[in-house]
Amino acid sequence: MNKFLIGKKDFLHNGEPVRIVAGAMHYFRVPREYWRDRLLKIKACGFNTIETYAAWNMHEPREGEFDFSGMLDLKAYLELVNELGMFAIVRPGPYICSEWEFGGFPWWLLRYDDIELRCMNKTYLEKVDAYFDKIIPIIAECQIDNGGSVIMVQVENEYGSYGDDSEYIRYIAAGLRSRGITCELFTSDGDCDMMLTGGTVPEIFKTCNFGSRAEKAFEALRKFQPEGPLMCTEFWNGWFDHWEEKHHSRDVKDAVNCFDEVLSCGGSISVYMMHGGTNFGFMNGANCTDKEYQPTVNSYDDDAPINEYGGLTPKYYEFKKVLEKYGYTCDIEVCEPECVSYGSIALNEKAYLFDFINDFSDKYQDVLPRTMEKLGQGYGYTLYETFVRGPREGDKLTVVAHDRAYVYIDGVFKGIYYRNSKRKLKINIPAEGIKLSIIVENMGRINYGPYLKDYKGIVAPVRLGNQLLFHWDMYTLPFDDLSCLAFERDIKPKFNKKPVFLKGYLNISDEPKDTFVYLPSFKKGLIWINGKLLSRYWEKGPQLTAYLPTPMLKKGSNEVIVLEFEGYKKNVAEFLDKPILDK
C-alpha cells in the first residue's frame, strides 16, 4: 500500500524521507479546461505536490444544494493531480480566508441570528457537519491510502489569527477522521506566539506561514513542536490587490532568496500562490481594519510565478533554478499561452435598470430596511425604496450601507455613500413628498479578521436628520439571469445618471483565444460574457482589465453586456492581448 507519514525528522513516503515541494493552485479559480496545463507547468518547475483549498460557498451556494460539477469537480481535480504523478494537500476549511468571498463561508450562514463563526456554536457546527458530510468523503476517496494523491488534510485554517477555541479545533479534526480521513492532519498558522498558541493543539502536526525570515519563523515553530519536519504551508512569494490601492509586485531576487532560505533550512514548502487564477463574478473577498473596508479585485494574479492567464514569469524560471540546485527537476516541456487582441466593439444597445426592477427581483416590504441576507440574497445589489413626506428643508440623510450606495430622489441621482466615508447628503423635501431610492452594492464580504460577520445591504435604520424613516419596499438584484432585459438600439447612448445596461457583440471568425476586457471610458459596474458574469470593474484600479478565458467564448457572435452605475464617455469595449493590473 502507498503510504505517507510524518516522522520524527522527515516526511516519509513508503518509509523513505521526502521533502514536500508544493505549489498552491485552487481548482475553483481556474477554468477546468486549463487545469492540466497549469498543473503541468507547476510540475515542470520541479514541484512534487499541489495544494488547494476547497470553497464551501461554491459547493453549497444555497443551503442544502450542493455542486461538484464543472470547475467545482474536486474529485476530478485530485484524480488529475494523481494522474500527473504528484501529491495533493487539501485544505477543506470550513474557513479558508484566501481573499475569497466571506473566507469561503456561504452567505446564508448570516441568516441565522444565533450563529457564531469558527467556534463551538451549535448552529454553526450543524452547518459545518452537513457540508463535511458531502465533501470529506470525496477527499477521503482520493487519499494516498486508497491509491490517490492526497497526503495531508488541514484542520481549519490559520485559526490562531482569529480565535483560541481548542475544543473547536479538535471537533473539526474529529469530523475529518469520522468521515474517512486516514492520512496525516495538520494546522497552519502565522509564525508568532499568539497565533501558534491560539491555533494549535498538541496532538496535531503544526506548520507555519510566512514570506521571509525562514530561520526565525522555524525557530518560533520549534517552541511549539520540538521534533518533526519543518514546513511552511504558505510561502507568500507575492501579494493580492485591493481596489484603490497600488498593484503589488515583489522583487524577484528577494522572493527567490527567501524561497531558497526555506529549503536551505531543510524545510518543506508550499508556494502561495504558484498560480493564482481569478475571482470570477462576485467571488472576491475583502479585508477590514478598524478604520477602513478594503475590497479585493477580481484578478488573483498575486504576482505568482505562473500569472493569471498561465504565463511563465521571471520568478517561475528563478524558482526552477533553485529547485534544480536541490535536485528537483522535471523535463516536461510547457509553452506560453496565446492571448489575442480582438480590437474594440460598440455597445449600442441599452436598457435602464429601473425599467426592469419588477422583472429582475423578488419584492419585500418591511417597516425597516433589512440586510441582503435577511432578504434571502447572497450577492449583487439590493434596491431600497420609501416615500418621505414633506415639507422639510436641509435635513441630512444618514445611510449606513455595506458597501456602496447610490441615492436617487424621484428617480434623479443625488449622490453616493461608500462604507469608508462619513458623507451625509442634505436634501429638501417638498410638500408633496418624494420617493427615496437607494441601490446598495455588495462589494465582497470580509474574509479575514474579527469583522468576519459582514452583513450586506443597508445595515442600520435610515435617518433624515434624527428621524428614522419607516416602511420600505426592497428588491433583490442578484443579476444571475439577464434574460428579462429588452434592449433598445442606440448608436451613441448618453449616460443620464441612472444605472444602465449596454450590450454589444464580439464576433470571432476563428477558434477563440484568451483575451482581456478593457472599458477605458467607463467608471464602475459589471461585465457579462454570453450571459455569464465575468467580473467587476472600477476606474479606480489598480485592475483595469478583466481576464476573459477561451472557455467563456465561442466562434461567431459573443454577447457582451456592461452594467454601468457611475457614468461613461464612450460606449466602447476593447479586447486586449495583455492585462492592465497596475494603474
Quick structural overview:
The chain is an alpha+beta fold.
List keywords for this structure.
eight-stranded parallel beta barrel, 583 residues, globular, six-stranded antiparallel β-sheet, alpha+beta
What does this structure look like?
- The protein is an alpha+beta fold and 583 residues long.
- It is built from ten helices and 35 strands.
- The strands form eight sheets. The protein has an eight-stranded parallel barrel with strand order 4-5-6-7-8-9-10-11, surrounded by five helices.
- Strand 9, helix 7 and strand 10 form a beta-alpha-beta unit.
- Helix 8 runs parallel beside helix 9.
**Strands, count:** 35
- In round numbers, the mean pLDDT is 97
Count of runs of 4 or more consecutive helical residues: 10
Main beta-sheet strand count, sense and barrel state: 8 strands, parallel, barrel
Strand content: 25-35%
User: Cα distance, first to last residue?
Assistant: 53 Å
Strand order of the largest sheet: 4-5-6-7-8-9-10-11
Task: Please give the radius of gyration in angstroms.
Answer: 25 Å
Given helix and strand content, the structural type is: alpha+beta
